Amino acid sequence: MQAILVSACLRGVPCRFDGQHKASSEIEEAVVGREVVSFCPEVAGGLATPRRPAELVGGDGHDVLGGAARVVEDTGRDVTAEFVDGARRALAAARHGGCTEALLMPRSPSCGRGVVYDGSFAGELVPGDGVTAALLERNGIVVRPAPGV
Fold first, then answer.
1. Which InterPro entries match (predicted)?
2. What angle do helix axes 131-138 and 80-97 make, rounded to 10 degrees?
């Protein structure tokens, strides 16, 4: 049975920034027959639940990993270190669990794949990946956005 890393909020854990979760029947169907490793990189990186909304500023997760962008809360507080630490912990969990694929929360500054919020906190989306998605991809783990979220 092939293991898959899944954002913990998609598995019903109330760990999103707003203290909610995003579990759905589509997610459960997507992981049927798979060993699931549930993980929240933001909580693992030391952030509380609930917490202030955060977005990528100056680029996407690949740029954060390269030191050219950062992650900031809507108050302006820089939480880049927490996001990078959480991404590293997610990669370690994926490796430990034998995961070759990840199903992550769309649009998130951690887990977003293909599209993320633009850093203006105005709900605008731009092409890019979150910090965790970028790190997993760089390490050969196929990252997919969750269906129906």
1. 2-thiour_desulf
2. 40
Q: Residues with Cβ < 8 Å from 115, sequence gap 6 or more? A: 106, 107, 125, 126, 127, 128, 145
Q: How far is it, in rounded angstroms, from Cα 59 to Cα 116?
A: 10
Counting other chains too, the contacts that 108-115 makes at CB distance below 8 Å and 24 or more residues apart are: 108/7, 109/54, 109/55, 109/56, 109/61, 109/71, 109/83, 110/41, 110/42, 110/61, 110/83, 110/86, 111/7, 111/41, 112/61, 112/145, 113/143, 113/144, 113/145, 114/145, 115/145
C-beta neighbour count of 1 within 10 angstroms: 7
pLDDT tens digits along 2-44: 999 999 999 999 999 999 999 999 999 999 999 999 999 999 9
Q: What is the pTM of this model?
A: 0.97
